[in-house]
Amino acid sequence: MAETKWPGCAGGLKAVVLDMCGVLYDSEPGRTVAIPGSVEAVNRLMSSDLQLRFCTNETQSSRDKFVAMLQTAGFDISVSQIFAPAPAAVAVLNERGLRPHLLVHDGVLSEFDSVDKTDPNCVVIGDAAEKFSYQNLNDAFRVLTGLEKPLLFSLGQGRYYKETNGLSLDVGVYMKALEYACDLKAEVIGKPSPRFFQSVLNDMGLQPHEVLMIGDDLVNDVGGAQNCGMKGIQVRTGKYRPSDEKHLTVTADGTVDNLSQAVDMILSQRGG
Amino acid sequence: MAETKWPGCAGGLKAVVLDMCGVLYDSEPGRTVAIPGSVEAVNRLMSSDLQLRFCTNETQSSRDKFVAMLQTAGFDISVSQIFAPAPAAVAVLNERGLRPHLLVHDGVLSEFDSVDKTDPNCVVIGDAAEKFSYQNLNDAFRVLTGLEKPLLFSLGQGRYYKETNGLSLDVGVYMKALEYACDLKAEVIGKPSPRFFQSVLNDMGLQPHEVLMIGDDLVNDVGGAQNCGMKGIQVRTGKYRPSDEKHLTVTADGTVDNLSQAVDMILSQRGG
Fold first, then answer.
1. What is the ipTM of this complex?
2. Chain A: which residues have CB within 8 Å of chain B?
């Protein structure tokens, strides 16, 4: 077992923010499998005096469906605890009076029910998977080229994710495709955008140094949180790779085998 | 009519290289329409003592089918005069002992008939249009991530092209997508790659300063040829835009209304 690195992250801690896929569970086609010990670890955090939020770049389902799916895997989490790119995008669209052309997964469409989508003046892409057909990408491209000021929002910027049958292309790849086609820079909504982490802090009414982020993605979870002044812990589950511990630009504040071990460390340091 | 700029490009000229789409013809769904005067202009060049080659980034059909299509539009051109990315790629693959996974248009597949495609050790993408499905792009991505040294060849790097029903995404967009997904840099085969222009020069046995390139694409045709030491003329047909004449990095050696006018200038300067 690799060495646990934990230089006293839990001092003055008031809240924990958890990434979901790869920390709580692994995804298999058609089902969600809890990572051993993670259901109990979440319950222990909930029973503590720490605030708890979940921060995901999941854009294949609405939070309602997501919570239901998590329940079948044993997690008892409420919609209000979950921060995801789609509702964050809706907030941005409303704030700036924008009407999106959507290229997103069918599962997440209901999050955009309240948004005016007529005569679009921007494009929003999410992890649309099979919906990333040539026709659909071309349609999004034509909307962008038809705008005086082309405006593209991307729900995350991941390169790929792991499924049991292999790696699958994530939304960032199609963001880069449209950026090149239209010669523009997309606005990323979701991790590692500082605005996204800040919205979680605002919701809890806390300062960054009072909050610890735990994730399996070194750049988007750990690096993103650190850029906002939070501490960032990486777990050796999900998309973790040993090379992460020698990364050139991001160094986690701690590295542990899994969520269960992280919660052990946090609660024992607090005498909990 | 805009001003003709023609600072004596034809001095010492021994050959002309023509781009095809946007110079000879415009593409409409299901048919090819000759640009007025271009059939006759090609015939006049053929009757002169100048060598003539055609240099295209067309990767939706084999040269055989391409020549047949051009014939219906009135052009009498032979396969041996046409330089296109697919046969150039075949030469590279043979030279380096590479076995490609192909993500190309069905129409161009026959150009790769002679190539061993078992147990692929590289990926070749062309303008696959509707074949750029999520599944197919993911398959190409998985081949690349499975290689010790991922190697991607792109048949061109265009952003988009114009069809009568609007703009359509070109191969360069998908090249950028895979570059980001795999954190690599593709090798571009076709214009504006210097290697591609050099193969045309080699075929004619000429030095760059003896050859004039005529195209509608300022960066890929004109700039690419100039980078090899050839002169580059832009026509105001096809994808030409007035802003090209104020481009920051590429300045054509001459700008004319169309191919017919270019050939007038060339032949009159030569006393032809």
1. 0.88
2. 128-135, 137-138, 141-142, 145, 159-160, 166-169, 172-174, 176-181, 183
Q: What is the percentage of chain A residues whose pLDDT exceeds 70?
A: 97
**Which residues of chain A form CATH 3.40.50.1000?**
15-84+191-269, 85-189
Angle between helix B38-47 and B259-269 (nearest 10): 30
- Inspect the interface and report whether the beta carbons of A176 and B174 lie closer than 8 Å: no
- The top-level CATH class assigned to B85-189 is alpha beta
**Predicted pLDDT of residue A2:** 65
Q: Using one digit for the tens of pLDDT, what is the confidence trace for B59-76?
A: 999 999 999 999 999 999
Q: Write down how long chain A is.
A: 272
SS (H, E, C) chain B: CCCCECCCCCCCCCEEEECCECCCEEEECCEEEECCCHHHHHHHHHHCCCEEEEECCCCCCCHHHHHHHHHHCCCCCCHHHEECHHHHHHHHHHHHCCCEEEECCHHHHHHHCCCCCCCCCEEEECCCHHHCCHHHHHHHHHHHHCCCCCCEEEECCCCEEEECCEEEECHHHHHHHHHHHHCCCCEEECCCCHHHHHHHHHHHCCCHHHEEEEECCHHHHHHHHHHCCCEEEEECCCCCCHHHHHCCCCCCCEEECCHHHHHHHHHHHCCC
Q: Which of B139, B169, B182 to mutate to test the interface with A (most CBs of A within 10 A)?
A: B169
Is the per-residue pLDDT at B248 higher than 70? yes
Answer yes or no: do A181 and B168 touch at CB < 8 A: no
Can you name the residues that pair with B235 across neighbouring β-strands? B256
Chain B: residue whose CA lies nearest to A176: B177
Residue A1 has pLDDT above 60, yes or no: no
Listed in order, the ranges of chain B carrying CATH 3.40.50.1000 are 15-84+192-269, 85-189
Structure tokens at A142: 């034509």
- The residues with which B82 forms a beta bridge, in sequence order, are B54
- The C-alpha atoms of residue A104 and residue B177 are separated, in whole angstroms, by 17
**Fold observed for domain B15-84+192-269:** Rossmann fold (3.40.50)
Closest-CA residue of A relative to B162 is A142
**pLDDT 10s digits, B5-57:** 777 767 789 999 999 999 999 987 677 899 999 999 999 999 999 999 999 99
Distance from CA of B258 to the nearest CA of A (A): 26
Residue in chain B closest to A127 (alpha carbons) equals B134
